[in-house]
Amino acid sequence: MATKKNADIARQREDEVMLLRTRDRLEFREIAERIGADVKNTYEAWKRGRARLHKEASEAFGAYVGEQLATCRQVIDGLMPMVRAGGMHAPKAGEAIVRAMDHEAKLLGLYAPVKTNVTVTDEMTARVKALAEEIAALDGA
Description:
The chain is mainly alpha-helical. It contains 5 helices and no strands. It has helices at 4-22, 28-35, 39-85, 90-107, 122-140. The chain is flat and about 75 Å long.
């Protein structure tokens, strides 16, 4: 069973391997020689370090998106009474709500590109060429 001290040493080793690999661009063999370990353990430390950093980054990103969504919800909830009441500030409050909703949609990925499968036929190509010739004739007139 790993102790806290062993876990700290392993984490330090992973961090060192990550730095030597990413910052210094050393090969695993060179890293192993530098830290006094074998190549297999060096590679495993690198894999563990990458997995840990990926997990930490994912959690931080998720927390950030959650905070942003909560802020958007607070803005919308706070401004909605002004819009409903009407008055001179209603148009500006409505614009702010739309911007907050737009930000929400971006955070949620609702504006992600959609893949489409488009087939161009010979008939379509001929129509485009004919239209181009018409436009060229108009420019010359």
